[in-house]
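Sample intake — Dihydroorotate dehydrogenase
Collected from: Streptococcus mitis
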Amino acid sequence: MTTNRLQVSLPGLDLKNPIIPASGCFGFGQEYAKYYDLDLLGSIMIKATTLEARFGNPTPRVAETPAGMLNAIGLQNPGLEVVLAEKLPWLEREYPNLPIIANVAGFSKQEYAAVSQGISKAVNVKAIELNISCPNVDHCNHGLLIGQDPDLAYDVVKATVEASDVPVYVKLTPSVTDIVTVAKAAEDAGASGLTMINTLVGMRFDLKTRKPILANGTGGMSGPAVFPVALKLIRQVAQTTDLPIIGMGGVDSAEAALEMYLAGASAIGVGTANFTNPYACPDIIENLPKVMDKYGISSLENLRKEVKASLR
């Protein structure tokens, strides 16, 4: 009965439960496999993959903040060829029943399309998460990220959807004036779903050096501090689209996961909590039925339908 209560069905993804480690907070799975059986998870979002290997930003790249953290990793990854030859085969061999969501990043629509085309052919890759919080090299858009420009977002999503063999979920940045416009552009371009939110932008200073703590100056802020922002933006988008949303941003408990559902999410990404507690995901999965019982929630699917009806 517990299994049925937690089941989630999304485009390309039939999940035993809604809990998914967020990209960038779980590597390619190997780092956490020593703590627990990854088959406990609903799915796994692997680290962002670009066409060529990236060494990332100079250090320091991580800083603590109250109720969260800043990171400026810079999309460090071994590149598509290594991911296909080494990282994905390990996951597919050790966890053949675990659905994989491949996070794809790039700096032009051609790169997004090329990476998506290649990675979507891997056996257990059931969906792509499109990271459009990247600068674009094809247009003079005054330093805007792709996800901050609805027209650019449309072009990149459309190119990716056409190149991919699996459904595409677009990861939305909160650093926009109107997130609904970007979500609509993604939907119009053929996206099957959305993931949100990506990190906010912030910075910290070192009082001794009088300089930013991060070598990059600014970084992405995540953790419980961004949770209320994530809820608000998810609700805002859920009121305007029927696309399923994988909600993320500060989730660290079963209660927080259910709040995401109340905002309009259909599944849950867990990010920064994995750094403070490597067992965060299985702990949330274990506690969900207990919290659902406490608040009279028969199943996540019924809760999703109830919330969806209230949004219209």
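Post-analysis note: The chain has one domain: 2-311.
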